[in-house]
Amino acid sequence: MNRTMALRLAAVGVVAALGTLSGCGSDDAADSGNSPQHKQTSAPAAKKAPAHVLSQQELDHAALVATDLTKYSVETIAGKGKPVGRLDADHRTLITAKGCQPLYDMTRFVTAYPATTGRVVQAAEDTSTEDGQQTVVTLASYTKTTAAQGIADLRKSLGSCTAFVGPVAGDTYTYKGVTALPDPHLGDEAVSYRMDRYIPGISEGDSAILPPAQEIYVVVRVGATLVSFSSFAIPTPGAHPAQIPPQVLTAQLKKLT
Fold first, then answer.
1. What is the DSSP string of 208-247?
2. Which of 98, 152, 154, 237 is the most exposed place for a label (fewest CB within 10 A)?
């Protein structure tokens, strides 16, 4: 099996999660806004980050466009005129693994707290190679308190959770090897981590044809906005490890500050 086919098969999890999100429709709140294993530590709070809760229109304006990047395409999944999904906490699915809920929530681009005005979800894909890595970028508005709590929840979860199981669009995925990465010191505060995703019939079970997908996340708070970056890779011969491209990360955070 070549690397391109491997990437397409592993991408099913990302596509399924995005499809679930974008298919839920908008609600009134959305319309009103016309590698190493290190312990995670807290980044010092930035004094200049805006505490202003961005409206859906402001989020749309702050989201990436293709001209912000070099040799990347940008596809909008939610926001910018497309349904943003439900913004209340009922959109979450609860799992049983103790202490792991925040990490599972982030695989579906939500937190335990309702986004107050809106959300934008986009996929930035490297077009310089045939099997270019894709990075999912999510912007969501919260109050400053709930945005900070979202980061705190992830940090706490990374201190205790090592594996969990959760449903994604009708399938049940297993996540193992949850590992906190060094504090990226971005925005007001941030967390970074990696984990391995096992997909039934593809990387799990007797009929497995691929190793588990390596996923990496960087979640940043900028004032009252949470920005999540996630990417994955298949550890096949010649493949690059999962990473968040600095160009994507820098371009998006620059538009928020």
1. --SPPEEEEEEEEEETTEEEEEEEEE---TTPPPP---HH
2. 237
Q: Which three-class secondary structure state does DSSP give residue 164?
A: strand
Would you say 128 and 71 are in contact if contact means Cβ atoms under 8 Å apart?
Answer: yes
**Alpha-carbon torsion 50, 219, 122, 56, what sign?**
negative
Q: How many Å is the Cα radius of gyration of the chain?
A: 17
Residues 6+ apart with CB under 8 A from 80: 60, 63, 120
Helix residue ranges per DSSP H, the chain: 3-10, 12-22, 28-31, 56-62, 101-107, 144-158, 246-256
CA distance 119 to 59: 7
Per-residue pLDDT tens for 100-122?
999 999 998 889 999 999 999 99
* pTM, two decimal places: 0.82
Tell me the one-letter amino acid at 195: M
